[in-house]
Design brief:
This protein is of the alpha+beta class. It contains 6 helices and 22 strands.
């Protein structure tokens, strides 16, 4: 029995009893390899994402400029302009409108048919020039009728005077009573009054006849014709025949804040103040004139005062009801330190500029005295000839190494700038140029056109 049991234990078992354990061991092993592959893929993706992000941040990081400007510091390209010393006119600016000194709507003073028109639309006429004619025959006939009535009354007057002289002689001789002589004298007086009335009617008819010739009441420019030739016109017509506007000279009404009133009055006591009219975009000077007067009251709703100026308007650059920007020049600032407005920066400590010296940028606090157009007058902080940065300040820090563009030899630029000694009445607004932050820098101040952005021909107009 024992031999048979051991033999039985050593006897091979059926294969079907060992297959399930083999399959259960292989399944966990396959799942383990899948998790390993997934972890490797995730680790590789995270590594490449980290490297790409670090590379992008290193490229986007600003150039280090806060150090001592060593060999490893990045060079920042900026545009510079020199601070200038010059005479700058001091203006007060206000919004105004062009107003003619005189405007007349020419109307007929009698009723009749418009027979002839002697003017052309847009023509310049002088006072007394013939504009149109009305059919005069009706008034001519009425005049002749009045003249005939006058002749009749004059004949009766002469006869009454002869009768009065006869009755007066007979009364003196005692032939007739005094009453008859007095009655005849009264008749003479009545006829004299009738003759005077006839003469007045004749003068009235002559006046109406003269109204058939319509003349210009003033010198000016004729507008569009409102009535065509051949139409019946009346003295009660609301539109009239044509409108004449005096445009040479012409006036301008503009407003200034009431705070400027006393300053203007003080300057008016010593000299005739000049004014300039500019277009609506405040870039083109249209005309130069003089200040005439100030209104006698302040507008309480707006807190402004109205001023009236006069322009010769020889070139017809100003038209009635045109909106203009008016500049009233009060004085000229002598030997003022001027820099472009684009160079002015503002921070927590106030206004400052970046100056460039020996290839390095320095932050310099400044005190702005006045801003005139696209230039700033500096009271302190900048001296004549200092190079100030007008473009590229957003990439700068104090002490940064810079590469300056736009400055010529000796700190001057060859680009056109404002006149060093502007005379009263000249425009002091520089034109063109670039400015950081989206504002237009004054290209009129030397060096304002030196930025790399503005030098790109593809971006210029």
């Amino acid at each position: 029995m024992a031999i048979s049991d051991s033999v039985q234990d050593k006897a091979p078992q059926p294969p079907s009893q060992y297959r399930p354990p083999v399959e259960e061991a292989k399944a966990p092993r396959k799942r383990g390899w899948i998790w390993v592959v997934v972890l490797i893929v995730l680790a590789g993706g995270g590594y490449f994402y980290y490297r790409s992000r670090v590379s992008a941040e290193s490229k986007a990081a600003p150039a280090p400029g806060g150090g001592k400007g060593g060999a490893g510091a990045a060079v920042v390209s900026v545009a510079v302009a020199p601070a200038l010393k010059q005479n700058v006119p001091y203006y007060l600016s206000g919004l105004g409108s062009v107003t003619p000194f005189n405007t007349v709507t020419v109307k007929s003073r009698v009723d009749g048919q418009l027979e002839k028109v002697h003017f052309t639309e847009g023509q310049f006429v002088k006072e007394g020039d013939l504009l149109a004619e009305i059919d005069p025959r009706t008034f001519q006939v009425a005049l002749e009728q009045m003249q005939g009535q006058l002749a009749r009354d004059q004949a009766q007057l002469n006869n009454a005077r002869v009768d009065y002289a006869r009755y007066d002689q007979l009364h003196k001789e005692g032939v007739v009573a005094a009453q008859q002589a007095d009655t005849q004298n009264a008749m003479v007086g009545q006829l004299e009054g009738a003759v005077r009335a006839d003469q007045a009617q004749i003068d009235n008819q002559k006046l109406l006849l003269s109204y058939c010739r319509i003349t210009a009441p003033l010198s000016g420019r004729v507008g569009l014709r409102l009535t065509d030739q051949g139409n019946m016109i009346h003295a009660s017509d609301p539109n009239g025949l044509v409108v004449i506007t005096q445009v040479q000279p012409i006036a301008t009404l503009f407003t200034l804040p009431e705070d400027s009133l006393q300053e203007v009055i003080q300057h008016m006591k010593h000299e005739q103040l000049a004014i300039e009219a500019y277009s609506r975009d405040d870039q083109t000077k249209l005309a130069t004139g003089k200040l005439l007067t100030i209104d006698n009251q302040i507008d309480p709703t707006t807190g402004t005062v109205r001023f009236k100026g006069e322009f010769d308007n020889r070139d017809l650059s100003l038209w009635p009801n045109q909106f203009v920007n008016v500049r009233l020049m009060l004085t000229v600032r002598k030997d003022a330190i001027v820099i472009p407005l684009a160079a002015i920066q503002r921070g927590a400590q106030g206004t400052y500029v970046y100056t460039v010296k020996n290839g390095h940028a320095n932050m310099q606090p400044v005190k702005v005295d006045m801003t005139q157009g696209n230039i700033s007058l500096i009271a302190s902080g900048v001296a004549e000839g200092d190079q100030v940065v007008v473009d590229g300040q957003d990439r700068l820090q104090s002490g940064a190494t810079v590469e300056a563009h736009g400055a010529g030899p000796g700190g001057a630029n060859n680009s056109a700038g404002p006149a060093s000694n502007p005379t009263p009445g000249q425009n002091t607004r520089p034109n063109g140029g670039g400015r950081s932050g989206g504002d237009a820098a004054p290209g009129g101040v030397p060096g304002a056109q030196g930025s790399g952005r503005r030098r790109d021909p593809a971006k210029q107009n």
